Structures are given as C-alpha cells and as structure tokens.
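Need tokens for this chain, all 379 residues.
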Amino acid sequence: MMYLGICLVIHVSNILICFLEDGLKTLRSLFVVLFSDNSFTITSFLLATFISHKDMIRLSRITKIFSETVLVQKTSSVPSMMRKLSTNTYLSAPSDCILPEPPLPPNEVVLNTLGEPTLASLGLNSYWPSGWYQSLLESLHVHLDLPWWGAIAASTILIRMCMFPIMVRQRRHLAEYTNIIPQVTVLQESLTRARLSGNYVEMMRTSEKMSQLMKNNNLNPLNTFKYVFLQAPIFLGVFTGIRGLVNLPVTSLQTGGTAWFTDLTASDPYCILPFLSMSLLLLTFETGAELRSGQTQLTIRLFSRALPVVGFLFVMNMPSALVWYWTVSNLVSLLQSVILRQRLVRSYLNLPSVRKPPPVIEKKRGFIAGFKECILILC
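Here are the structure tokens for all 379 residues:
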C-alpha cells in the first residue's frame, strides 16, 4: 500500500513537471517584438503542439490586451527560429499601440494692471541688454501709467543722464587732444618727409617724439575708441529692445503714439520724425565744431553734413518707435553740447578750454605726390 502511494506521488510529480515545462515553453515563445522603419508590429508565435484550437483563441484575446498595454521597444535582432515560426500565426498591432506625444504646456498670457499682456508672457524681457531695456520700458508704462511714447522718451532721457559722466570724460579727452594738434601736425609732417625720403632713422626718432608728446599730456589715442565701445552696447541694446517690441508686435504699441504718429509700429506717414531726428543730429555736429582742428575741419564738416542726408534715406521707412527714440536722443545730445559750451559749466567739470590752432598754409602738391603721400600715411 505504501509502495502504491509512493508510485502515485512520483507519477503526479512527473505530470506536474511536464505541465510546467510545457507552459514555460509556451509563454516564452508567445511574444516576440519586431521593429521596422515604417511601423511597430507584434507577432505572436504559438506552439501548436502544446496548444489546442480553443487555447489559441483565448491566447489571441490575451495577445490583443497585451499589445494595447505594453510599450513596444526596439530589438536589434530576432532569432532565426522565431522568424521561421512567424508564418504560423500573425497578429497585427492595433493602430493605437504607439503612445501619443505628450501635450504641450498651455500658453498662458498673464495680464498686467492695465489689462495688457506682460512682455514676459509674450517671450520678451530676456537677460540680454535688450531685455533689460524692455523691462525698464514696461515698468515706466505700467507703474507710472505712461503711454509708450512717453515711456520711450523718459527712458531715453534717463539713460543719457546716466551716461553723462562718460560724455564729460570724452569731451575732456577731445579738448586736450585738440590743444596739441599743432604739435602733432608738425611731427606728422616730419614723419611723412622721412617716409618719402626713406630715412628710417628719422622716422623712428619722430615716432618716439610723438609718443613722448602723448605721454606728457596723459593722452592715449585709443581712449577715443574706449569711450565709443562703452556706449555702443547700451545704444545697441536700446535699438534691439525697441525693434523686438515692434517686430512681435506688441498690440498696445499700435495705439501708443501721439500727435500724427499714433501707430509706433508703422513708419511716419509724413516723414516729419526722420526730418527732425536728422536735423537735430546736424545741429549737434555743428555745436561741436570747436573740437575740430584746422587741418581736418573741412573734411569733418563735409562728413557731418552728408551723414544726416544719407541717414534720412535710411530712417524714413523705419518704425516710428525707433525714429522717436533717435529724435529724443539727438535732442538730449544737442542740449548737453550747448550746456557743456558754457564757461561756468566747463570750469566746474574741469574741462579745458579749446585753443584755436594757428592757420596752417599748406604747399600745393601735384596729384601723384598727394596720392603717394596718402598711401604712405594709410600704410
């Protein structure tokens, strides 16, 4: 009796082991994921030797549920045995087996106290100088309740006042340099004669004298460019900041003008603003005539009078916001130039008075000699 019980237990154990092995083989070969360039496919490989017709129907339903819930991943290779078995049973994946792209975040437009979209919600107010200027404009427009044309004018005056010390230093440097122009002219003529004659010893000696002259007067020719480079990023940031507002465009700018230029995103229909801007620029050049040397006065005068004419052709079709900024900026420059010409102001700011250079009578040269001298000076 005990022997029969032991044999029965062993027989049942063998049956369970065979069933488990067959089940594992069936589940292992059930799903193989294939990847192609065009689409994802899920292929079910069923071992017909272990599964009946009813079980195949049930497994087909399970395959469908599995393909809808499992994320398909790419496999680099598939065993050759599985490729051969793929001809037995093939189940196509449903069209929704690939997960859709995540939705984009909602584009929320934040309104300020005036009921207008904030510049930050429109993608402006960056961390560049142009974004800083846009933040300044928005603060003046929202917190002080200034119209856009008033905010542009107020910000321009504020920036020019902050840059006034740089302008004073630049004027001081130009005045000191203008006072030694006669001595520099004599040395330049000596240097030119030495170049024409090929006397390199005299050239070195004259160059050393000119360097010593600059050193004694605490002057550096590069200081002129230094002041220009200090101001250039500020004006460039203002220009790009206003242009960014206009190009978007900010809707409130279309009604943020005044007088005849109510739309700041459009050009002035009467070209009055471009004319005013270039006229103020010309007057600013004329008020600085005392800082010009006698030898270069004619050239600078021609350049300063031609620049406003050419500039008018460029700015006449630009948005009114930009031209309005240039008009206010040129007006402030003109007022500063007039103020700095006053004797009390010059003494308070320690600006040296500009001495008129003695008239220099130049000898007439032929065309070839003059052309050769110009080439030598440029080289």
